[in-house]
Amino acid sequence: MHLAFCSIIVFIFVCSNQGHQTMKVAIIGAGPSGLISAKYCADAGFDYDIYEQTGAVGGTWVYTDKTDLDENDLPVHSSMYKNLRTNLPKELMTFGGFTYPEELKRSYLYQAEVLQYFENFTKHFHIDEHIKFFSYVKQIESLTNGKWLVKLLDVKSKTETEHIYNVVMVCNGHYEKPFIPDIKGASGFEGMKLHSHAYRIAEIFTGKTVLIIGGGPSGIDISRLLSKVALKVFLSHRNVIPIKLPNSVYLKPIVKEIFKNSVVFNDGTEENIDVILYCTGKVIYKHMYLTQNNNPMYNKIRYLINVKINFDMTNCKTCKKTANFTL
Ligand SMILES: *[C@@H]1O[C@H](CO)[C@@H](O)[C@H](O)[C@H]1NC(C)=O
After folding, report:
1. Using a 6 Å CB cutoff, which residues line ligand 1?
2. Among 6, 10, 1, 58, which Cα is nearest to 305's?
3. 73-77, 312-316, 320-324, range with the lowest pLDDT
4. Which protein residue's CA is at the shortest distance from atom 12 of ligand 1?
5. Do 186 and 258 contact (CB within 8 A), yes or no?
6. What CATH number is attached to the domain comprising 259?
7. Which secondary structure element, helix H or strand E, spans residue 113, and what is its range?
8. 53 and 158 inside one domain
9. Which of 116, 119, 125 to mutate for ligand 1's pocket (most ligand atoms within 8 Å of CB)?
10. 2 domain residue, yes or no
11. Which of 61-75, 154-168, 285-299 has the lowest mean pLDDT?
12. Which amino acid residue places its CA nearest to atom 2 of ligand 1?
């Protein structure tokens, strides 16, 4: 999973004639970008509602055992796994006006700490009062008067409602489908294969020999977690690994070919493998509800804003160096 705060980019669709009434804003998603957008809406005196398809705030930072569909049959967007540690220091993940507690000295936090920060932020600014949980946005339509019609499905009662807004902020993240590279022989592999999107807990790999494909943030972090329980972990990567990995993680070049129970790497070495774990990222989310033929939303994007985050690095001793943490 890409942990960088890229999802903080918010698309705003603004109508042409807003008049002087209170601006009504619909925010889609109660993850980090939805929450900070809500704070700015409140500061500006806007009337806003947040529509969240799950029952929790925090978006991608919420841990769930589910990997495919949630209990309401909606796709699980989060790829969060147990004991994830961020690849960004908290000093770069702080929202303006609300700091992490003084006692939390470490820069690189665990998932539960980050999630608690978002929960605290939500309560502190009374954002929770504006969140409509279990509300799935089915479609957004532009109206001739310049406003927006938001069609909602209540995923519990299965009832549909329609609401009108001046502005819609799309804050539901932009990564969707797991990306799996096409590697020769992969379909003939007889062991377990999965993508990091479906990875949750390390313990199921106890005693196994695991090949992690991909040396990005999730590949590196998951290799750290698996090294504690797996028999052996091989990490196949193409770029420089910026940190020291545990001794039981063996670095390998890219995979040349996959066989029934083994893998051959580009340097000619071959290893027996029980599990292949693809840490190869996700592809961009398509915002399906914006791409109806009769609804050329993309032409209506007027503003692309990058929400201000607190960029004060003075208290961050490790910020200037790459990944200066010990495993
Ligand atoms: C969240 O708030 C609780 C209660 O005030 C506090 O104990 C905790 O340290 C806070 N945690 C974070 C990460 O902000």
Report:
1. 100-101, 113, 116-117, 120
2. 10
3. 320-324
4. 117
5. yes
6. 3.50.50.60
7. helix 111-124
8. yes
9. 116
10. no
11. 285-299
12. 120
Are residues 77 and 167 both part of a single domain?
yes
* Domain membership flag for residue 31: yes
Full residue range of the structural domain in which residue 192 is found = 179-282
State whether 208 and 231 are in the same domain. Answer: yes
- What total number of domains does the chain contain? 2
Atom 4 (ligand 1) nearest CA: 120
Digit-coded pLDDT (tens) for 97-142: 899 998 988 888 999 999 999 999 999 999 999 999 999 998 888 7
Query: What pLDDT sits at residue 124?
Result: 97
C-alpha 111 – ligand 1 centre gap (Å)? 14
Average pLDDT of span 156-183: 87
Specify the DSSP class assigned to residue 205.
G
Same domain, 28 and 156: yes
Structural domain contains residue 72: yes
Locate the ligand 1 atom nearest the alpha carbon of residue 121 and give its number: 14
Q: For the chain, give the number of residues.
A: 327
* Residue-wise pLDDT tens digits, 277-315: 999 987 765 555 554 444 444 444 444 444 433 344 444
Does 234 reside within a domain?
Answer: yes
DSSP, res 110: B
**d(C-alpha 162, C-alpha 320), whole Å:** 48
Give the pLDDT score at 82: 79
**Tokens, residue 6:** 């890229």
Residues 29 and 163 grouped into a single domain = yes
Structure confidence at residue 154 (pLDDT):
95
Per the CB < 8 A criterion, the answer to whether 150 and 162 are in contact is yes
Q: Which of 282, 220, 234 is nearest to 79 (CA)?
A: 282
